[in-house]
Specification:
Largest sheet: 5 strands, mixed, barrel
Strand content: 25-35%
Distance between the termini: 94 Å
Structural class: mainly beta
């Protein structure tokens, strides 16, 4: 007489405790994708092949009266007329962030003047009477008026004093703009 076993065999079991260990790979791992920063040899090859194509453009200097709301990428030479420090509000910054120094500086050239918002280390560069080159400057709108600013992608360079007489009676920051939806 044969006995029938009620115990499950390995072929018909569905128990998760008897799963196989993960399979070991043979050979090197698959190649990694090339991200934003390729390896040095690829980067050098790219620079060699494109050296003739990537010529730097000369900056186009604009005058202050040519600035329009919402534009960016301006390069201009201005003279700092005045600097007013903006007081920091008590609850404005979180305790884990470093304090932000902000100053509003009146800058301009022979054509017009505008308020420049200087932040942190920029405050030390923007002293009254100095002449500065602003590279990659942008126009920010604050309460309907234009403010000139240079963010982390731009640069402020103090240059030798130029004979610029600032036209203070044409202050572009005093002009109030209103956003209008055109249908």
């Amino acid at each position: 007489m044969e006995r029938m076993s009620s115990a499950p065999t390995a072929s018909n079991t569905t128990d998760n405790s008897q799963q196989r260990p993960p399979r070991q790979r043979n050979g090197p791992p698959p190649p990694r994708r090339q991200g934003r920063n390729p390896p040095p040899q690829t980067r050098a090859r790219y620079q060699q092949t494109n050296q003739g194509l990537q010529e730097k453009k000369k900056p186009v200097f604009v005058k202050v009266d040519q600035l329009k709301p919402g534009t960016s990428g301006h390069t201009l030479t201005v003279k700092v007329v005045d600097q007013n420090s903006v007081p920091q509000k008590a609850g404005a910054a979180s305790s884990h962030l470093r304090p932000v120094r902000i100053a509003e500086c009146l800058v301009g050239d022979e054509t017009a003047s505008i308020l420049f918002t200087a932040r942190n280390d920029q405050v030390d560069l923007m002293k009254p009477g100095t002449t500065v080159n602003l590279r990659n400057a942008k126009i920010d709108m604050f309460k309907g008026s234009m403010r000139l600013a240079v963010d982390k992608w731009g640069r402020i360079e103090v240059t030798e004093p130029a004979g610029i007489t600032v036209k203070e009676d044409n202050n572009l920051s005093l002009v109030e703009y209103e956003l209008v939806n055109v249908e």
